[in-house]
Amino acid sequence: MKPHRIALLVALALPFGIATSALADSDDIVVENAWARASIGTSRPGAVYMEIRNKGDEPVTLTGLQTDLAMMPKIHRTATDEQGVSSMSPVGEIVIAPGETVALEPGGLHAMLMQLQRPMEESESFLLTLTFSDRGETTVEVPILGIAARGPED
Ligand SMILES: [Cu+2]
């Protein structure tokens, strides 16, 4: 856990006029330990990992992602079957119960950055906006680690 490495930015200037009350509630959502791996060029998608904590009293639903780094950021889940074969499938939404933390981590849930607009270079960072069904948006700065990184503590 290195919280000082994570810049949590709450988007105050929203382009599409989300109600002020929704913004206040987004304080209940904490995104920690976000990181991504460097990519080789732009032909393969990038992956982003993080922990999303719901400090509030109501469930929150992550419905979408946005970043200028990729045209199609999607939530995916990797599952490994009994034969040890892994496959990924899109996850439409993630519901986070009150007091719960959902981990996006290698081998499980992740944000897949499809159609990269530029290579992901180690030691750079980018902004990723998480959209919640009724709590507005939260934008995090995601540091790009080495191509073989397993997590922010490597
Ligand atoms: Cu994926």
- Unreliable sequence segments: 1-24
Distance between the termini: 11 Å
Total of DSSP H or I helical runs spanning 4+ residues: 1
Summed up, the domain count is 1
CATH topology: Immunoglobulin-like
| Helix/strand/pairing category | mainly beta
Could you describe the 3D structure shown?
This protein is mostly beta strands. 4% of the residues lie in helices and 49% in strands. It is built from 1 helix and 11 strands, in the order E-H-E-E-E-E-E-E-E-E-E-E. The structure holds copper (II) ion. Copper (II) ion binds next to strand 9.
Keywords for this entry:
154 residues; mainly beta; Immunoglobulin-like; 49% strand; disordered N terminus; binds copper (II) ion; Copper(I)-binding protein; signal; Lxx211020-like; PCuAC_sf; LpqE-like
Please write out the topology.
Blueprint: E1 8-9, H1 20-25, E2 29-37, E3 46-54, E4 60-66, E5 70-80, E6 86-90, E7 94-96, E8 101-104, E9 109-116, E10 125-132, E11 136-145
Bound molecules: copper (II) ion.
Short description:
Residues 1-24 form the signal peptide. The longest helix is centred in the first third of the chain and has 6 residues, at 20-25.
